[in-house]
Amino acid sequence: MPGLTSESDVLAMVPVSPESEKQPLVNYPLRHGLKSAIHRLSFSWACGNTLRVSVFRKPPSEKADGDGEAGGTVVEVKLSNSGDEEVDAARWRRMAYTSVTPFALLQSRKHSLSAASRMSLDIPPYKAEWWEHVIEYSKEISSLLTDRKPPPKSIIEDPKSVVNAIAAPMCLKAAWELLEIFYVDKQSQSWIPERLLDWLADYNSLFSGTLPTIHSKLVDFQQELVGVQVVEEDPNYWDAMSSALAVGWLETVVKLLRLHGSYRFDQLSSRETENGLVEAVAVLISKMPRMRPSLREDNLGECYQTKPDFMKAWEKWRTQISKLDCSSYWLQCDHRQTREGLKNLIQILLGNPTVLSNATFNWMELFISHFLYIRPFTAGLESMHNSAQKCMQVKPVSISHKLFGLILGILGENTEVVLAECSRSFGPWMMVHAVELLTAGSTHAEILLHEEHSKLGGVSIEELHRLIYAQVLSSHALTWQIAPIYLTSCIKQGIGLLENLLYKQPVQHSQILLKSIEICRLYELDTINSNIMRIAGVHHWKHGRKGSGVFWLQQARDEFRLNRIAKQLFDFVGKSVSDEGFKQWEGLIELLGSESRTAGGLEFLNKYRDFRRSLLQVHGATPTDAARNAAEALVSLMKNPSTPQRFWLPLLYDSLKLLMWQERPLVNVSQTQFLLNKLQELSMARLRPDFVEADLPSDALSSVRLALATNLGRAILEE
Amino acid sequence: MAVLTSSSQNLQVHRFPQDHYIDSLRWLPQLSAFHRNIILAAFDSETSTSSLQILSSSNSSSNPPELTFQSSLTTPSRISSLTTSQNPNKLLIAASTFSGSLLLYTADLVNGSLEFVDSVAEKGFHLGRVNGIDVSENGSEFVSVGEDGRINWVSFVGGGLSTKKVFDSNGLVSYGAVKWASPVEFVSSGLGFGLQWWDQRRPGGPVSQFKANWTRGTTSGIVHSIDIHPSRKHTCLAGGSSGTVFAWDLRWQQQPIMLSGVGTSDLSALSPSESDVWEVQYDNYTASSNYRNMSESRVLPAMICSEDGILAVIEQGEEPVELLAEPCAINSFDIDRQNPSDIVCSLEWESIAILTRS
After folding, report:
1. Do B191 and A588 touch (CB under 8 A)?
2. Looking at the keywords, is Plastid present (chain A) (predicted)?
3. How would residue A510 be classed by pLDDT, with cut points 50, 70 and 90?
4. ipTM of the complex
């Protein structure tokens, strides 16, 4: 076994996964503190991500007497994530919390809609309504993936800042937006290329870590820019602009163009033509026609909503560019870099494939540039997919980014690939929430996800992912209580797993116990509810909290256990009944209540207390009526089957004064005979080995018998 | 951040996500008009550590308030209940723990720092969780109750703590919450909607007990929180299971004054919540307008927070006013004593909400 050869008292655990080539190995040191050699290790799962490792030392040999060390020890190892996740644990929990409400709302809307439409959501008016709900859901989930606060915008804009330093975007959000673009947002179907362009502008920085990107290029150039005096002589200036232009970051290009030296007052006169050309290119760029309803803040271009309008504008714009390209002013421009650089930008605008390929760094960027300048009228996933394939041939990537796999799956209309990519790269949270987008957006996906699979135990893939996510939630002490929301949306296995989840919660923590009970109430799980209460009752009882134990067993209406513990409780009451110690019992008896609530054998305590009260009030000067009441209480207590046998003699002994009441006998003939029978029964029981002798004077039995006999005689005479 | 407008008053709500669970939280006395501090008992589930933290809240009317972290002290065990004394000379913060101890800290409001003073943790104090703790008006007498059925009186004298056992039920009764009624009297609460009135001049047991017997059926009757108004010391306000809130007046001991709860048919419609009420406090803000006119027999308005995410003000015989309806439980709240329009509450989903009524 690896790791066992070490002499030190620290072992290490190294998880090995099939993908270990990609992910770095993580070491989990085990500080077990044993000095002698380790003989055996045993592993088991503790709560959540915690692994319980039992470390056994070699059993000490017979000869060497104990060195005082324990035979082993148990350590718990928290298997944290490998550390390179973009979402830390607290952030992840926040995501889990905030996605509950949109998810639950969508489910309830789905239910009410399908109830209204009586089967299928495909009937047009319902379908349209359903779309709106899904869009709302998607936007809400998307917004919770955004960081809380946008960085404050500085009032004075730095003219030299070309890259916005926004908070690092999340891959998860990028993936979510992709799904939203392709599956949900039907209104934007006609301008998907423009949405992809925006998407790349937002998330290009995500690829910078693993791939060369335009974003990283611009960031580099931004730093360089601070020290450069004459920008137009720096080849990087022109490269940066052509790259930015290739992926449609028009505002960046125009901003950079305006940094051109010919704009400076001292040079304006001498470089008039040059400046005119720069400005002409800048104006043309900022007037680029865009097939979209509106522009985002700070973006440039002119929007066209319908295809004919856009085509017309596009042709006109292209003609203007060609005209500029052939203009004679170029000959008068004697600044070589400016001339070549601007010509290069014009080539990009004209859609020269070689220039575009040079200006971009990966296939995704090239793909976007093709939309912009080569095939602006691309529509339909198939042609987009073809285009993407071509771009990948031109710019193959050595390391595939997880978002690329997702895009290719979407473009290839391959739901299985999309699901696999989501699951592999983005985990259970993404799966369970994204499934709603997929089923809404594609019939094929809907069939695939809702089909029940016998090899999955009869559940559909949708349900499977909900179950998995619920498992993840259940493994954490703070998120387990939202798992029921996902479990109850699973028709086949959900309730069964919810029962398991509730049974596994530790009852000793009162908050968790009450939470479990609340969940049972919400989902009407009455049997589990009373089982949990019963478990709690027994737990409290075992730990000496008798009151809580009795309370929870009463709540669970568990007469059987109440009767069992009653016996033990009476042992505990024992002889102390008649003395001051009984005061402690008042609280418990108060709790038991006089109502006909389930108290099992404990009911006796209540009656006993009442009897004791009436007995204490009886003394020589008491009117006979009060004494008679006490005697009645005694008889009914003795008749009650729940009165333990061991209390019979003490009860009778305590009531001697009632049996020997001066004025007249308080107990009639039949009652006396009954009491005598009881006494007889008691004498028989004494012969049994398990009989517990009451702690009373040795003559107690005989004096009670005498009193009863006397009373019998008096009663007969009276009657 | 949402700004809600309820029927009768304007309400501003600001939420602040935290990175840990919040067991309890309290306002600390105001230092200046613009800054206030909050003390909270936090529990970090990743490391299983708990701590006391001071957060400072900026309080300007124009900008949304901001919460900034001031200082934190790790506590030896998880906090079950938190209370602060309004002693002007020294600000004391007492916390009871899951492991049966009582911790005493002092806070420096100028620097926003916390300092440990003393603790009681010996075996004879409490066994297991201390459920409730309260500090007397003079700020130096504490009373603690536990699930083990013990009640202890702790005095802070000469810079240290000394304890005296008031009662030990040997586990036959478990207590949940406790509140001082006078320098020698206090009220404890427990299972079965039970309340006990204790008087130190008559030791040996509670001088008066109350147990509600109106709940039959499936509801569990536990009182989670109680409050006593300084101007009406004969009445104890209690909140617990099934949205139940009632007042127990010592002068009419047999019958509680029901304020809310699903167990009673005539009140069900008026109950803002139908699950556990975690905390109750008298709400001086609502009362301030017509406080004087209120008849002696009427129960003063009270604020509650509940398991089903409700923060509401209830008044005898009136429609409750709902201040917040959250998708998760509201575990605790505190009304600022100096500025009762402001409320801070802790949400189950690891966040804090600050409400301002105007």
Report:
1. no
2. no
3. confident
4. 0.92
